[in-house]
Structures are given as structure tokens and as C-alpha cells.
Amino acid sequence: MRCHPIVSHHFSSRRPDVVHHYLTEAYGTQGMRIRGGGYRLSHHRINAGSFRMDRVAQSGDLRIDVEQLDSVVVCQSTSSMVSRVSDGELRPFRPGDVFLNAHPGRPYRIRWRRGEVLLVQLDAGLLHQVVSPAPGRRPAPIRFTDLQSASPVLAEHWRSTARYVRHAVLGNPEASRQPLVLGAAARTLATAALAVFPNTALTDPTRQDRRDAGAPALRRAIAFMEENAHRDISPADVAVAAAVSVRSLQLAFRRHLDSTPAAYLRRIRLERAHQELCMGDPRRETVSRIATRWGFLSHSRFTAHYRSVFGIPPSRTLHG
Q1: pLDDT (0 to 100) of residue 251
Q2: Residue 43: CB partners within 8 Å, gap ≥ 6?
Q3: What is the pLDDT of residues 183-236, one digit of tens each?
Q4: Which stretches does DSSP call E strand in 20-88?
Q5: Whether pLDDT at 138 is above 70
Q6: CB–CB of 218/177 below 8 Å?
């Protein structure tokens, strides 16, 4: 997955025609109608390529009809009352609630009273980067079976995940420039969406997955990760290289190494960071910059992990 440099954009207008044009372009909606007047809409977007994080506020009482929206949009109301009609079902939402705008590709209506909402827009392809069949098998479309979070605990899981990405990743100038960090953040959001909202994605290994989870698949996966650790590679990328499904891949690592693909890739990247620290010039490099370049966002966690593997703090390696 390619990661593009993040772009921050702010929009504000009272003109209904300008607002309509902006929202249509921002969300790729088809057949949007907005009813209501005397309002100002303010929209702040951080665009990270495969996902966008928006803070949207308006001062009136708007009714918005949309014929089709192809991406996945997760909403969190912070101070607004919102009601949504989708597939003939009316659902009200209060501040703090977490919900999906609609089923992708389906029409819906929103009544949005004055206040603020936080939106996370995910490209549909992100879901298949964390849940993917084996090469040659026909992928089944991932469909959400409910537009509400499965439980209050899972709703809080989404809020904390989105808050982490917004502040720790996108709010960190160094981290937000690193493809490995942005790619991991995108897949973290996709994984959280699949965990929070009921869907048709399978999580348990099938009989075929268990047959595929052998040592040859593991060797192919490890070789691919060793060769491409510097790139933003997803579980689906590794599974394709190993010619198995994502679930087969996870099972193979658990069966043969008592590990996970993500943990194994993290160890490879830790070794690469160690090599850069050994060769780095402390007058030009910092531990934090090298760690972030290899996808380690938290300096304290990187230091603890590094010390547990190499027996010394990374700063001593760099300055030694």
C-alpha cells in the first residue's frame, strides 16, 4: 500500500451551494441533497491517503439525503444529536455514540442538529488488507451487518483507536511523514472498524486454511518480509507472497513459531533499526528518528523493546 504525504485542509462557508459542492467532492457522494438554511459549516480534514480524519461542525438543523457512498465512514458525535434512516430503519444518536453512516453503496438520510461530529473515512480496500482469502480464491465482499457498534466497550475501543491515530500519529510531524507508520495506522483503523461493527468477514481458519498453514508457506512469508521490511507491507501482501490466505498465514506463524506475522515483521525491523543505530552519526541522527523510520512510534516502547533484545538502550548503540 502506498502512503501519500498527509494534507491538512480547512473549509468554512454559509453558502448552501458551496457546502454542497464541497461535501460531494470530499466524500465522493452521489445524488446528495441538503435541506436547511441559516447555518455555517466548518470542516477540518487531515488526509492521509487511504484514510481521512475529519472534524465537522455546523450551526443549524440540516437534513442530508445521499443516494450512494462507496467508502466506509465511521461517525462519532461529540456534541450533536444525529438521526439516520438507512434501509427503512430510523436510528437516533447522542453525543458520544459511534456508528456507520450507511452501508457502502446504499442510500441513506441524516438529520444533523447543530454541533460537532468526528468522521473517519476509510477506503474500502483497507478492509481487505487485514482480511483476505488465499490467491486464486474468489474474495467475498465484506459487508457490515449492523451500522451500530456491537457494544459500549467496542464503541470505546473505536474512540480510543481514532484518538490515538489522530494525536499520536497525525499529530506527530516526524511520524506522519513515515510510510510505515501511516500504513500501520490505516490498517489499525480498518481492523478496529471490523472489530467494532458486526460484519461478514471470517475470523476463524477454515479447513483449507489449516491445510495451507505449513512450513513452505512460512518460509515464503519470511523471505518476503526480509526482502520488503523497508516497505509498507500489509498482512494481505505477505499472504499473497506466501500463496495462502491471511488466516492461513496467521496460523502458520502460530503453529511453527509461536508468534504472529506482525510480531515477526516487527523483530525484522528492530534488527534493521539496530543496524542503522550501529552505523549512524549521532551528530546527524537521533534514536527517535531512526525508530520512527522503521515504524516504531513510541520512543519509550522502542527503547524497552530494544533493551530487552540487545541488552543496552538504543542511545548507547548510537553514541557508542
Answers
A1: 92
A2: 10, 11, 12, 22, 23, 26, 54, 55, 56
A3: 999 999 999 999 999 988 866 777 888 888 899 999 999 999 999 999 999 998
A4: 33-35, 41-47, 51-66, 72-77, 82-86
A5: no
A6: no
List beta partners, residue 116.
57
| Cβ atoms of residues 169 and 185 within 8 Å | yes
Q: State the sign of the Cα–Cα–Cα–Cα dihedral 12, 178, 245, 193.
A: negative
Q: How far, in whole angstroms, is CA 316 from its chain's centroid? A: 34
Q: How far apart are CA 5 and CA 177, in angstroms?
A: 6
Residue 64 contacts residue 28 (beta carbons within 8 Å): no
pTM, full prediction: 0.87
How far apart, in whole angstroms, are the C-alpha atoms of residue 277 and residue 312?
12
Q: Directed axis angle between helix 261-279 and helix 235-242, to 10°? A: 100
| Distance between CA atoms of residues 214 and 3, nearest Å | 32
Alpha helices by DSSP H, listed for the chain, are: 16-27, 125-130, 152-164, 179-196, 207-212, 215-228, 235-242, 246-257, 261-279, 287-293, 299-310, 314-319
The model's confidence at residue 171, banded by pLDDT at 50, 70 and 90, is very high
Neighbours of 47 (CB within 10 A): 18
Helix (H, G, I), strand (E, B) or coil at 305: helix
The total number of residues shown for the chain amounts to 320
Q: Which of 314, 221, 320 is nearest to 272 (CA)?
A: 314
Q: Structural domains in the chain?
A: 7-126 (2.60.120.10), 265-319 (1.10.10)
d(CA 320, CA 304): 18
Handedness of CA 28, 29, 31, 34 (dihedral sign): negative
